Amino acid sequence: MNILDRLERKFGSHAIQHLTPIIIVTYVTGYILQLMGSVTGSSPLALLSFSPTLIARGQVWRIVTWILMPPSSLSIWTLLMLFCIYQQGVMLEQVWGDFKFDFYIFNGLILTVIAGFIAYAISPMEVEFYSLSFSTYYISLSVFLGLALTFPNMEFRFMFLIPIKAKYLVIFYGAYLLYVLIAGNSVVLGAMIIASAANMALFFFLYRKGPGLTRSQRKTRNNYRKFMRQNRRSGEKIDRTTFGGQSNTGYGQNGYGPDNSGYGQNSYGPDNSGYGQNGYGPGNTGYGQNGYGPDDSGYGQNGYGQQQNYDSSAGSRDTSGQRMRGYRNGKGRQPIHRCTVCGRTELDDPTLEFRYCSKCKGNHEYCMDHLYNHVHIQ
Predict the structure, then answer these.
(1) Alpha-carbon torsion, ordered 303, 309, 313, 314, to 10 deg
(2) pTM assigned to the model
(3) C-alpha 156: how far from its chain's center?
């Protein structure tokens, strides 16, 4: 389990739900204050801007209130920007979850404040002079970049006309920000850009780092990768629906696991267990819709056990070997989700999240560790 998952398990109940509308409200509030200043001639934003000098004199609210600073004047492009931020932010909240999205935004704000104080130490006069330009613009831009890095093959309409994949837009924006950082010759601008880039690098380092695997799981993963590499080099047509683990597990529709378990629709586990629709476990248990357990028990819709069969409703023992309903809870509980690559289910780790791949033919489900780095099944 990675660091973000551990933090989410511990503090996830305190996450702010629907943070994106709150971000839009801060922008709208900033533009209202900007219009009030243009009418009255005295801008209220001057009392809210980021000013390390005034913060040191006791105006500590400026550490927080600077997030109300609008990045530019109000125009039709501003409304389009707010619409895009809202749309992309809501999508990221749905994909990452409230806690991870909150972590991404608040970590960006904290790093920006730290970068502002560092910039003040380098050039205090410039930071004070451009205090009204110290805003959350690049943090809002990182919402789009976060979405593009999560779904690199998603298509966006550049200028609302030209379809471009997100990964190419990331390269374009990265080059543009690098140009602005070099050509801008501004400590304040550089601080905001570097803070935004550091936030994305830190988040995706923690987010992409998958959960720790056991020795058998690592061995199975390495066998799978070795199998795929050998077939690519040999030029043979790869059967992407099956894979047989040499030691413990087999994955796929007809996967065979010689030692302990086989995963898939028609899988056989010679020692202990078989998992899938028609799984046979010669030793102890058979799991699936038509699972047979010759010694002790059969779990599933049509589970048969020669010695003991259990009825979850009555809890009674039946030695007749007739068709009975198996346990739905406890040891024989059926997994609802299973990763096509690693075979893990929600029973192995309750914090695992699963998604279907729209580019794979058929209904193939993957955990978040393999959703973006698997070979598509055609």
Answers:
(1) 160
(2) 0.56
(3) 20
